[in-house]
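Final report, Chapter 2: Outcomes

The project's central promise was a pipeline that accepts a single protein chain and returns its three-dimensional structure in a standardized token representation, suitable for archiving and comparison. That pipeline is now operational. To close this chapter, we reproduce one record exactly as it appears in the project archive, with the input sequence first and the structure output second.
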Amino acid sequence: MSSQDQALSCRVYALRAVGNQEYNVAFMLKARAEHKGLDKVRISAIVVLPTLKGFVFVEGSMPYEIQDLATGIKHYRGMVRGVMSVDELLSSLAKPVEINVGDVVEIIVEPFRGYKGRVVDIDKQRGQVYLELLDSSSTMPIIVNLKGVRKIESK
């Protein structure tokens, strides 16, 4: 079977895991697949979506191989019946939100978690946002990673 035929025969299977333990299950699956031998296990990818708690997605051609690898992992809770296409999984990935100057954002990383601020400047090359805190009496701008803010409202 050529690599193109193998890629076409791969499907995505969903595994249930304990909430907030998806990455542990994914790392254990990866370790078991490497230990067994990557040439013997037909798994193409292991994906964890941060927005979807309790699920690990595995792309492979044989569901019984995935089931066999996952059996015995501490936080693994079973395999979901049915198959997903790769396109369904790709469409569920988070799309980046465009943040512009003047937007109001909430900081989602420490040490300013929960504070709201207005975007003063954006440095896309460095991936940084300059914010002016709304709850503060001073107007000193702070610098936060672009992934560390969530857009609340547009200007």
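Archive annotation: The longest strand covers residues 116-123.
This record, like all others produced under the grant, will remain available to the consortium after the project formally closes.
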